[in-house]
């Protein structure tokens, strides 16, 4: 049985946070979907609130401190990513964006990603499609077709979740599990300090890079 | 082991007074600092190159030429020379000239430069940074080693029958270091040629410096220049000292908090933990600096940044006194005692001449008219 690593980034600021709540629902559904496909899952959650100052420091100094480095490595090294942000002013939160700003530009290339968002009203729901998805497209991540938005009324159904939301969560989780299981177990990010694939002679001849 | 200082030539307001020095004041201050470095027994003075305010050092060989005339033992270097946006022909000429004026007390550190607009100002594209560094340096090496160069590349107009003058002093080009904070390709370049590799060692955590240095050492051995522990490594570092360490912390804090590069971010205490920055007593600086070899191995050159962020000249000179009187003599003794015999020192003009089998005049006597330079 293959064990997959699933990183979960939650940009929620309050405690308890509906963003984290959605992230947890998406995570549980994805773990279940992976299990039904025969894979175990290790889940690692990155709460961005805990890294608010680390992220500001990284913007200023240009490098992540140790705590943030660990979070970044968790995300870039995972087989799949669930990324959930609150919608602020019609887009992802600044904190959420900052986390993805400080990653190396190729760090999420090819990474299976499930997007989620929460907001105070359902009228923000398409921010997932016009703001969050383009960010991950730029990063060349592989976002699954279903992105999951939850407004306050979505938490009101049986079992604490509206039926329609529960269905979307399951569909999105299945899509993520399909992409993750279709890939070799963790392609860890390329080690920049491995022996170069392009020889220096090739660089000199202008045939490298 | 060589000890010295490097400066970026920033003109920064003193946050404790609000006053910004004039260019004239800052330029004279750097000349004073360089001479003082020799007086207190340091080995190396390295000067940065920038082409925009708040920096003055657009013309490093002019400045270093002056310092050469005012000093007698100080090794003059750069931190860094922009191998991307400078014409390699001009680098070859300028630094060979400086080498003659300084009786060989010259080496260079190549860097790509991280100021985006400098590239277009000099007709280049920052996205070509690595390729520029590779092509330009390959040409620079030929210009110093071959009397007549025919060359064609991607970034510069071709050369036909070109002789860079003056020829390197005693027929031996200056030693070259390559500096890079993040790019393994530059460490690879240094390893390929058997040149030195310098890590800035200021802005990033030591673990990162370690990875860059280990990569360079491994590749140095791969290219057959010697064993990994014989590769030529230089490190930067940032210190501020007072006899009483709490005095050092209190005095430097406003400069740290407002420093152009990392100010308004992490606290002084956090940055001191995350990076090699050491603020405290001379003993603390000695202890921290000796620790660098635990992750960088036995290395050849240690340069300290001590004159930035608006620190007044008087303070910088006091730092030099502490370095020269209390820190460097101890470091020199301790590092030398720890270094195995097979680990070389940083190459100097004298050692390179010896390796080359002695000095030779490399003047090119061309069949040209002695007034216009036209070939007859």
Characterization of the model:
The complex is a heterodimer of chains A (209) and B (376). With 209 residues, chain A is α/β, with parallel strands linked by helices. Chain A has a single domain (3-204), classed as 3-Layer(aba) Sandwich (Rossmann fold). Chain A is 40% helix and 19% strand. Chain A has seven helices and seven strands, in the order E-H-E-H-H-E-E-H-E-H-E-E-H-H. In chain A, strands 1, 2, 3, 4, 5, 6 and 7 form a seven-stranded mixed β-sheet that branches. The longest helix of chain A is centred in the N-terminal third of the chain and has 19 residues, at 18-36. The radius of gyration of chain A is 18 Å and the shape is globular. Chain A starts with a strand and ends in a 5-residue tail after the last helix. The mean pLDDT of chain A is 93. By secondary structure, chain B is an alpha/beta fold. Chain B has one domain: TIM Barrel (Alpha-Beta Barrel), CATH 3.20.20.30. In chain B, 42% of the residues lie in helices and 13% in strands. Chain B is built from twelve helices and 13 strands. In chain B, the strands form three sheets. A nine-stranded parallel β-sheet of chain B has the order 3-2-1-13-10-9-8-5-4. A two-stranded antiparallel ribbon of chain B has the order 6-7. A two-stranded parallel ribbon of chain B has the order 11-12. In chain B, helix 3 packs across helix 5 and helix 10 packs across helix 11 (313-338). The termini of chain B are far apart. The model of chain B has no long low-confidence stretch (mean pLDDT 96). The chains are: A alpha/beta (209), B alpha/beta (376).
